[in-house]
């Protein structure tokens, strides 16, 4: 063992590591304390897994057409069957999940990591948190103006809002992200504002003000970390809503342009063949949307329940 | 009270070896163990102890309100000779009927905010007895008169939010007394009230005890309060009764180290830092799941503990037939010299000299802070109509010398917190001059220079919200160091550890999160954070009022020590007059946004008094049943700061003006009073001439 020199760590580093380790373990144990959170997590992890490894989990590409075998049921060759053009449904399904959860197609073959739904919610979080923090912390007329504008947005029915935005911007993944951002922002801003109103009365905020800290420091360093619990739960639910919205838009033909694998447009296409005796093309993407949304909801609910109990 | 009469009373409640446990995830946790006491007719038994000692658990056990996870594990509760433990809910209701009543800490939670008080009161009667509504109404009014409620007929038609906190508590007590209960349980009934309100409610409780002959259980953490109202006393610690006996016996000759520790850790009214020291009890109350089963529960914090104490749970030792203590050394303790605690450390403080050459640190003149009152009416939304202002601070002038402590006292709403916010720059000043080290500082904190900001730091009241729960202790203390560049960046960690040591915390706290700390520890970190920028002025806003008494003493001692070492000046705000007296060199008494009396601490606490100061002092609960205290009670409520009374603001409640001033003292209503000065810079804001004020008796007569 002479060759291997063990790296010595200082006592402080040791303590930091221990406390970090403990913190992570605590977070994880909250999830595992709740049965429904574990079920939700399992479903979500399943979808993330198949989406990440989609190219390795099927011999077919989602666009490969098999003219000899359209509208087939599950078989050993096509485990979930094929659609009206003979495309493999399993392949289209998991590549569809990929668009939702893992990649954001920009244009042509260009894409960036992070699913369309994830990007949408992330952008909505950034905008909504900033607006919520500013109006909650400053209050006064600024708060009135921001909140009334967001109220006006919330007054429009969500589906209608999506349709207006997509009709104006045109169908593309980036525009779906923009639509999700616009629709999600008011809710997040309201949540963050109410959390901020509560937290800003705490004495550590007064201590920071006494130190003469800048408002941005107080909002993002002192207030925001203490609001993270409810925000994380809310964001998970919102990813679910975003997936739902993507399905809806795809179904209405406003999602990703064909022929890319999109769950909503798969349902829309497959719908025509349900009565003709091949419901598979519509069934699988419907189940996929439902299970992923339910999984996220279960995870969020379980987390919320457990974190409330610990407080 | 006559001893013969006391023993003749019928036993109403007999609690024997009561053990109560709560089910938790980690198994059953015993919150109260082996509790025994009896309460007789017309007698008050006090349950006293720090938070988490199981006082309320015992009360809830008696009325069976333990909640879904609480249960009585063993022992008996006999109420009027009937066993209560093990009975069904229905049988209990029959046995207790209307005979047990309870008064809680927060009257706002005991009263339904959307129902008129008259209806709530009559309901209490008609629910238990078959009484006609009109009769019930009449009896409710009688009872409101009985609890000294002004204007009872009118109060019957009001909603709870329309009367003050003290009056709400009176209504709750009236409601409890309506059915003439045999047992009245009061759980911290005065803790949420101001000191003058508290005194009046305590007087009322005393009166009612004599008139109604109910057996009372009085739960509190305040030794002064318990000394005033109780006949018998149970001192509780960590779920056990450690000492039980007559109040006078326990206060004169405590025989348990915990009781002695509690009494040593609070300053008596009139004591100052120059002549005495507070002795905190080290450590903290162990949480219920970490309490040892078979040894003395107080041993880890006890100065007398020996190995013998850790061998078995001590039984009660009889000191006299009525006085028992759960300590194996109970009889020897008193005669032993106090080894670990020494009384002879006396700090050297010189008495204050106003205008002394040390120089002035902070001064403000004619300071005014007004808030615009936001009205919801359409007229004011349009910017029309008369603008109203809440005069939170009005014409206040104070000077503070370097290295000295200014105490600010007053009841809630008197403007002391607003004053502090004005100094710090968190609240815009309406008018007046404020100077700090000769620099004009009448602007908000965002416009102040960093070098000025760092000289003024604050220690806050609530230990649970003073630290940001998201960051480690080390990060929170190092932030002001980095911000004000007190030391070079590579030395920050060392500086934090030095500060932690200064507040008596170990290095390992550096990486801990606030929720891993106890209340006292959090408060220490708060002090360390305030010290980090090496400020000239530390403002302490009620720094100890949310802490348990034993911890309180440690924090006060720490602040005194810091002042000695760093020479910082302090502004010390508190509502506890004994603590303020102990801590401060100069004291300002505030009422309704104005200072009514200011001067050296010892001058404030002896005649001549401002009538308001006199009333405040006479209301302070003194933890010594032998002390005779003058009883001056203020009538009425604190008027609104939106529309303060004309002339002298205190004239609506002043107990002295009619007897001391001619012409029915009309001058008080018309003219603003003059400042009357005695020697040493002691000034009183009152129309009554000093000669007359001097004739007033001192508040406290000690029988020693």
Tell me about this structure.
The complex is a heterodimer of chains A (311) and B (704). Helices cover 70% and strands 3% of the residues of chain A. Chain A is an all-alpha fold. Chain A has helices at residues 11-33, 35-52, 54-57, 89-101, 116-138, 140-155, 158-169, 173-199, 203-210, 215-223, 228-251, 263-271, 280-310; strands spanning 103-107, 110-113. The longest helix of chain A is centred in the C-terminal third of the chain and has 31 residues, at 280-310. The model of chain A is unreliable at 1-7 (pLDDT under 50). In chain A, β1 (103-107) and β2 (110-113) form a beta hairpin. Chain A has one domain: MetI-like fold (Orthogonal Bundle), CATH 1.10.3720. A two-stranded antiparallel sheet of chain A has the order 1-2. Chain B is α/β, with parallel strands linked by helices and 704 residues long. Among the domains of chain B are: 111-178; 257-333, no CATH class; 360-587, Rossmann fold (3-Layer(aba) Sandwich); 606-701, no CATH class. Chain B has an eight-stranded mixed β-sheet, with helices on both faces. An eight-stranded mixed β-sheet of chain B has the order 18-19-20-15-21-22-25-24, sandwiched between helices. A four-stranded antiparallel β-sheet of chain B has the order 2-1-4-5. In chain B, α5 (117-128) packs across α6. The longest helix of chain B is centred in the N-terminal third of the chain and has 18 residues, at 195-212. Chain B is globular, with a radius of gyration of 27 Å. The model of chain B is unreliable at 1-7 and 335-357 (pLDDT under 50).
